[in-house]
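Per reviewer request, we include the raw input and output of the structure prediction for the construct analysed in the revised manuscript.
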Amino acid sequence: MRRRIAFTAIAAVCIGLASACAEPAKLQLDPAETMVEYKFRASSVPPQYHRSYIIKASETEASITVDSYGEVLRQETVAMPAETWSKVMALAATLPQRSDSIATPKPGCSGGTASKIIVRNGGQEQYSKSAENCGGKSDQPLTDTAAPLEELFNMKELLKYGD
């Protein structure tokens, strides 16, 4: 009897450990119902040099808004190529696995940049992650997911200083 209890207890612990260490599941996304939003916040510099932006993307289009401390500087909307959306969907679906090691941002980081990505499916938030790129911390899984969207725009022109 004691062996059964001990075996059951050990089995329960092993199952619990296995499920706790399991890799996060891929997101199940419908390309026609998915929206991806990527926010980049620049480091704290004088307003004439500060450029932050938000890219909002769906199966049909992507838009970007560039600002300096909340003042909108430029906006642009483009059609979404099917190939680009396929890449974004594949990257978005694996975000839970690829960004699992990104720590939650802590206050007090000075001079760094920040990224945030939100994935919605059918209007419901499926995934959200913020990352501070400060003191050696990386936001690469988020920036890798946003890269195909950034390629839709002339980022150099949109982020340039002065007009």
